[in-house]
Amino acid sequence: MEEENEKDLIGQDNIQEIIEDTIQHLNNPVNILKPIVKRYLSAVTKVNKEGNKFYFSDGEARVEIRVVSDEIFRVRLAPNGVFLDDFSYAVPVVDQKVSTFNLAEQEDSYTISTNTITCNIRKKDFLISFIDNNSQMVMSEDESPMHWEENKDFGGYHVFATKRCMPDENFFGLGDKSGNLNLRGRHFQNWNTDAYSFGWDQDPLYRTIPFYMGLHKESSYGIFFDNTFRSHFDFGREDHNKTSFWSDGGELQYYYIHGPHLMDVVKRYQSITGTHPMPPKWALGYHQCRWSYYPESKVKEIAEGFRSRKIPCDAIYLDIDYMDGYRCFTWNKKYFPDPKKMIRNLSAIGFKTVVMIDPGIKVDDNYWVFKEGKENNYFCRRSDDYYMEGHVWPGRCQFPDFTNPKVREWWGGLYKELVDMGVAGVWNDMNEPAVFGSGTFPNDVRHHFDGRRGSHRKAHNVYGMQMMRSTYDGLKKLMRNKRPFTITRAGYAGMQRYGSVWTGDNVATWEHLKMGNIQCQRMAMSGVPFCGTDIGGFSGEPDGELFTRWIQLGTFSPFMRAHSAGDTAAREPWSFDEPFTSINRKFIELRYRLLPYLYSVFWEHHRYGFPILRPMVMLEQHELKNHYREDEFSFGDKILVCPVLEQGAISRMVYLPSGLWYNYWTNELLSGGDELHIEASIETMPLFIKAGSVIPEYPVMQYVGEKNIQEVMLNIYYADYEVNSFFFEDHGDTYAFEQGIYSEKKFIVKGDENSVLIEQSVEGMYTNTYEWYQHKVIGIPFDVEKVIIDEREAAEFHFDEIGVLHFRTSRSFNEIRIYAS
Fold first, then answer.
1. C-alpha 490: how far from chain center
2. What is each CA distance from 66 to 99, 113, 295, 751, in whole angstroms?
3. Helix-helix angle 544-555:580-593, to 10 degrees
4. Rg (alpha carbons) of the chain, rounded to whole number
5. Taking the CB of residue 562, how many other CB atoms lie within 10 A of it?
6. pLDDT digit string (tens) for 100-113?
7. Do β-strands 62-67 and 53-57 pair in parallel, antiparallel, or remain unpaired?
8. What DSSP string runs through 779-793?
9. Could you give the residue ranges of the DSSP H alpha helices within 705-759?
10. Beta strands in 201-263 (DSSP E)
11. What 3-state DSSP class applies to 372?
């Protein structure tokens, strides 16, 4: 059958589906005189093969099943037999390496198999299912055939897919959603929305990531519904036996992504949509923002406030008030008479300047950006050829069509003056796109869509992503070999290739602290790793306790930024006096001490596709209780973070995954697999280090690069089993790592009752600026007689008052052996 090009089969209509649909239709009296327009795939009548693509037909509609890799299949439906252009903003390159695949025919079905999974297409009713070849377990299967309904108002189709919802199945992902981490029993829609002060379970929010993971019988899979129109997902809410996804237009195109582990699914999803580029190292520091810091004297006051109080900070943000009448790419010379000098002075004391740029361009013939856009026809138009106009901060505005590559190139070039002034990062806001009054653009706005044309119904959810793309590409070109830093409010799947995000305009409440914790975990599971919250809440007024608990959580958010609205009280780390100022300083300093670990985790994401934050369900998906645990997460695979999310709490219950863990603050060794009651006064937050880990540590700096590092601390946590750790270093802000100018160090730690072995191997050509490691070995269960470093006995080592072993080695050591007396 594999070599056969076409096969005619005798099939039958899906009679049961038609009967059910007819009954439902006739139960509504309004519909009695209307024809039934929802149509389902019927029996398979034809099959043909073209390379790694297989085409199945019921005589009218066609389905393409494409083998993307051993673990990924793509499914497309063409209701009238003609597929749309094969184009995606989310997936730059579809095909990956496939070991082998084949098509086979059985009596009742066709199967397409790789080494890992099998796609089964049932002949009589076109039901599609995916099966794990190893366990023979059905991972995902259609409950009813794919179906569609003609859209008489706009053309095209509403397209639908309905899957079985297994009795024990739970769901995760879907990106920017509020509420509980587990999606089971809920309904969502994707339509990028300016959701100011959003609430628990409010939907939709700012971003669209139509990717979810199902987990049942300890195995997982993913579905990525690559459709930019308004889309909907139902995870057993309407019918607890069904999971459905559908769209108001476009093509029914989805990827099945196999696990069986959630980590595998996320990595494979990112293999098609991309990972985040390596950020400049300073972007992992602490950032301070407000709407707005102005005039220049206020910016200077904030900068000096950090330096005089010895609170580390790397970036200060300028919100829209730095502009002349909110005109993008301009400066208000009353507030900022010499911006280049100000940015230079900030840089001299270690601050990077990040500025906001919105998409709305003021209609003003004396405004050079508007004139260029108008003369080149770069702004969006409506169906009757009027320009799309709407009111935002500058007043009446027009909006660039970022789905046009010429517009993207133009927009990227507009940053030249800002870059020449020394601006280090750009923040794209209001790009859902948001318009006062109407909310967003009308449906009839036309877009270029990279030559494939479309209304705003099609382009809405990718508008913000393409704006950030043009910003990132422009900055990358203008900054030459320096890495740009970009942040966006809106986006679509694949947005991680262009920059970072935050969770939007939150509120200074304990509920929002909890919600932000979950949102960042969900974004990480959905392929968007560089995410944070507005620490302290954008609107409302936190007290010192809430702000400090938020700083503690933010210390272990990939993106750490405090931000607040202009009508709120001051929101800097020292704004709540003692003891909060000292506690905030302590945790921000901890962030900077752990930067080599955080940066290494980012490298593991960029190069290998690992998520940075990992919810408890990703650590132990076989434990059903973990499907509902959502407070705790790991940062990388070595640090377990258990934030305090309740007002007045001085302790909390903590679940430790199986294995051995060290309390970060006390070095107490604890056994995992159970819940423990842990003290958590306002001065601390429960943190645990996996036994066997090597955690690199820098000296505290006021900003990244402040000090020339003389030695690096290696915190080594004893384990009586083997554990691998990674430590990545490079220049921190260039692309030299792409030519091998980096250092990826692998540490292996293995102990027993009488010895500890520590091995180091190094990949890459980067030369470190320091020569020494200071070792701290924690948890050694025996008295030490000698330490052998590369077959030479160490002349000096000692234990401190809490039993931690200290010694020093060259950074280029290969092997250390610690022996009992």
1. 12
2. 14, 11, 57, 48
3. 0
4. 28
5. 26
6. 999 999 999 999 99
7. antiparallel
8. ---S-EEEEEETTEE
9. none
10. 207-208, 211-216, 219-225, 231-235, 242-247, 252-258
11. helix
> Counting runs of H as helices and runs of E as strands, what totals does the chain give?
13, 53
338: CB partners within 8 A, 6+ apart: none
**What does DSSP assign to residue 554?**
H
Considering the candidates 169, 176, 248, 429, report the single residue annotated as catalytic.
429
Q: Are 245 and 161 in contact (CB under 8 A)?
A: yes
Choosing from 505, 620, 632, 733, the catalytic residue is 505
Q: Is there a contact between 380 and 386 (Cβ–Cβ < 8 Å)?
A: no
CB 579 within 8 A of CB 683: yes
Q: Where are the alpha helices (DSSP H) in 422-562?
A: 456-478, 510-525, 544-555
- C-alpha 274 chain-centroid distance: 11
Q: How do strand 286-288 and strand 315-318 relate by DSSP bridges?
A: parallel
Residue of 487, 511, 481 lying closest to 501 (CA atoms): 487
List phi, psi (to 5°) of 244. Answer: -130, 150
Residue 429 among the catalytic residues: yes
Q: Tell me 29's DSSP state.
A: G
Burial 768-782 (b: 16+ CB within 10 A, else e): eeeeebebbbbbbeb
CB-CB neighbours of 506 under 10 Å: 28
Angle at 388 between CA 386 and CA 390, to 5 degrees: 130
Report angle CA 599, 604, 606 to the nearest 5 degrees: 90
DSSP single-letter state for residue 250: S
Amino acid at site 724: N
Integer Cα distance of 777 and 280 in angstroms = 31
pLDDT per position as a tens digit, 690-745? 999 999 999 999 999 999 999 999 999 999 999 999 999 999 999 999 999 999 99
Q: What is the three-state SS of 307-329?
A: HHHCCCCCEEEECHHHCECCECC
Check residue 334 and give its pLDDT. 97
Amino acid (one-letter) located at 577: D
Catalytic residue among 17, 70, 176, 432: 432
Under 8 Å between Cβ of 225 and 231: yes
Task: Kindly indicate the confidence band of residue 18, based on its pLDDT and cuts at 50, 70 and 90.
Answer: very low
Q: 27 falls in which pLDDT band (50, 70, 90)?
A: low
Backbone angles phi, psi at 793, to 5 degrees: -75, 130
CA 236, chain centre distance (Å):
25
What contacts 780, CB < 8 A, 6 or more positions away?
718, 751, 756, 803, 805, 818
Q: Measure the CA–CA gap between 537 and 581, rounded to whole angstroms.
A: 17
Q: Give the CB-side neighbour count of residue 92, counting CA atoms within 13 A.
A: 10
Q: What is the DSSP annotation of 67-116?
A: E-SSSEEEEEEETTS-PPP---SS-S------S--EEEE-SSEEEEE-SS
Contact 362, 370 (CB under 8 A): yes
Q: Is 505 a catalytic residue?
A: yes
Cα–Cα distance between 677 and 682 in angstroms, integer? 16
Helices 405-413/456-478 angle, 10° precision:
40
Place of tokens 């030519």: 739
Nearest to 105 by CA among 201, 9, 247: 9
Q: Backbone phi, then psi, for 739, in 5-degree steps?
A: -100, 20
Contact indicator for 84, 101 with CB cutoff of 8 Å: no
Q: Is 385 a catalytic residue?
A: no
pLDDT for the residue 37: 79
- pLDDT tens per residue across span 211-266: 999 999 999 999 999 999 999 999 999 999 999 999 999 999 999 999 999 999 99
**In whole angstroms, how far apart are CA 48 and each of 72, 256, 552?**
20, 21, 58
